[in-house]
């Protein structure tokens, strides 16, 4: 038998990221108002937004349990385990836009030791977003 596993290749991008949220309506409003994105799909338990070639699926925590069982859905207060980064042309200008849309920054804008300028904020589900230039 020939081993063909060396021929398998990982995809070059991520097609979708599912974020678990307690308050779907607040999360939808945030993504529409802060990011200026339309909902591309929604039902009673989820709302999907497109970021370029990646879909962000906001899924009610009550529906998430079935999706990841037997793993457990963490409480939003348990702490962050990821950060999503969006490239921008001007971090400082984007921070002003975010403030005008009612977003409170967690940090930044700041110059990082690895040579980029960043700022970060949290969405209503507790997920951390970073903007970077």
Provide the helix percentage.
10-25%
The helix-and-strand class reads alpha/beta
Low-confidence stretches: none
- Give average pLDDT, whole number: 91
Give the helices and strands as they follow along the chain.
EHEEEHEHEEE
Q: Note the beta-strand portion.
A: 25-35%
Ends apart, CA distance between termini: 50 Å
Number of strands: 8
Oligomer: single chain
Count of separate DSSP helical elements: 3
**Largest pleated sheet:** 4 strands, mixed
* Rg over C-alpha atoms, rounded to the nearest angstrom: 17 Å
General shape: globular
Structure commentary:
With 133 residues, the protein is of the alpha/beta class. Helix content is 23%, strand content 35%. It contains 3 helices and 8 strands, in the order βαβββαβαβββ. The protein has helices spanning 24-35, 61-68, 91-100, and strands at 16-21, 39-42, 46-51, 54-60, 83-87, 105-111, 117-122, 128-132. The chain has a 4-stranded mixed beta sheet. A 4-stranded mixed beta sheet has the order 5-8-7-6, with helices on one face.
